[in-house]
Amino acid sequence: MTPRELEALVRLIGPARHIVLGTAADPVSRADGDRIAAAWGGLVLATVTWPETAASWLRQARRFAAPDPDLWVVSATPAGWAGMARRLRLSTSWSPHRTLTTSALADFALPGLRGTRPDGTTWET
Q1: Would you give the DSSP letter of residue 105?
Q2: How many of the other CB atoms lie within 10 Å of CB of 76?
Q3: Parallel, antiparallel, or unpaired: how do β-strands 122-124 and 114-116 relate?
Q4: Which of 10, 21, 23, 102 supports an S-S bond with 29, CB 3.0-4.6 Å?
Q5: How far apart are the C-alpha atoms of 81 and 22, rounded to whole Å?
Q6: Residues forming beta bridges with residue 47, ordered by sequence position
Q7: What is the DSSP secondary structure assignment for residue 97, as one 8-state letter?
Q8: Residue 51 in 3-state DSSP?
Q9: pTM above 0.85, yes or no
Q10: With the C-alpha atoms ordered 57, 73, 33, 29, is the resulting torsion angle positive or negative?
């Protein structure tokens, strides 16, 4: 994640009282998740990490959605997020309209999902 992207993501998180942070298990996604939490500096209700492949992602999806934060913030790879997002939609009260992602998921077409690009611009599907 570039410094501009991080700065833009922190701006999008803005006045949220609390977030849940979700990351893929790969080192880059986890490191970016740590950078987001540190740069924002607010209350992170939970940090949930999921694998690239799983039988169902149900356990992780329930942990991710349960705290019902102001925003969910995701740093993940497209492969892992595809499975996780599917499980979230099927099994929880999660909303893409309250979810922000890093640029790695900019091409993930899910109505309401928002995020940042490496140059600091934002996108919404």
Answers
A1: G
A2: 28
A3: antiparallel
A4: 23
A5: 10
A6: 21
A7: G
A8: coil
A9: yes
A10: positive
